[in-house]
Design a protein that fits this description.
Structural class: alpha+beta
CATH topology of one domain: PH-domain like
Largest sheet: 4 strands, antiparallel
Helix content: 25-40%
CATH architecture of one domain: Roll
Number of helices: 5
Strand content: 15-25%
Radius of gyration: 27 Å
Number of strands: 7
Order of helices and strands: EHHHEEEEEHEH
Length: 246
């Protein structure tokens, strides 16, 4: 007690938890279970396919050099003939590596006790908020020892644009895009964390529904609420760049 003021000092409320890099408090009771970002080299290799692009330009250079040598040019002249194409190849590969580096630097992945959050985009970052109730399943795809991607299959009422998610999206899923945590160095560990969180969330939702049904059945008939008309049912929850409200 503060004898001079005559007031009891109350304990300060605990600070709301935040995802590092996202200046917005999570709702009370929600905790961050994991947070990370893609590895830029893995992103360049598996999302931007720099190896395939390098092989393509290597074949073009071999064809150009072979054509020059077959025409009777010397090694020096063949090299001169290949110089413009070599410059284009270097520029393209450097650009792809730069995109991968910038994308990794500006991306944040996070798993909380209620949702998956993705901050993506280089010039215009957007926030993709995916509550667990909108996630149907998750698929782990490995690209090496402990490295891989974690794709999220969404329920039918959740719609996202493929172009907005790229490259953080599963390839060739254009009609029903699957947001993907890409180029993870600890993919199996992240998958285990998400699986446990989804299982716990499903159990809590089932218990809550059971409690509501029990309460509804025990209430007197005169006090039971009238079910709303189907025409006034709210639309399903959509994954979006909405605030992290519960």
């Amino acid at each position: 007690m503060n004898a001079r003021a005559g007031f009891v000092a109350l304990p300060e409320a605990p600070a709301a938890e935040q995802i590092v890099g996202i200046r917005e408090d999570l709702p009370p009771g929600e905790r961050v279970l994991w947070q990370g970002a893609p590895g830029w080299r893995l992103l360049a290799r598996h999302a931007l396919h720099v190896r395939a692009v390098a092989v393509y330009f290597a074949l073009l250079l071999a064809w150009r050099a072979g054509g020059s040598l077959f025409a009777g040019a010397g090694a020096g002249q063949a090299l001169v003939d290949c110089a413009p194409l070599l410059g284009v190849a270097a520029f393209v590969l450097a650009t792809l590596h730069g995109i991968a580096w910038l994308s990794a630097r500006t991306t944040i992945y996070a798993i909380t006790t209620r949702r998956v959050v993705m901050r993506i985009g280089i010039a215009l970052p957007i926030f993709v908020n995916l509550p667990f109730r909108g996630i149907e399943s998750a698929r782990l795809g490995t690209t090496g020892a402990a490295r891989g991607n974690l794709a999220l299959q969404l329920r039918g009422d959740v719609r996202l644009a493929w172009v907005h998610l790229w490259p953080h999206v599963r390839p060739w899923r254009v009609r029903r895009p699957e947001p993907t945590l890409r180029a993870l160095h600890d993919a199996p560990e992240v998958a285990a964390i998400l699986a446990a969180a989804l299982t716990q969330h499903a159990a809590l939702e089932a218990a809550r529904e059971t409690a509501q049904e029990t309460s509804h059945a025990a209430a007197p008939a005169a006090t039971r609420p009238i079910a709303p008309s189907a025409a006034f049912e709210p639309h399903g929850q959509r994954a979006s760049a909405a605030p992290l409200a519960a």
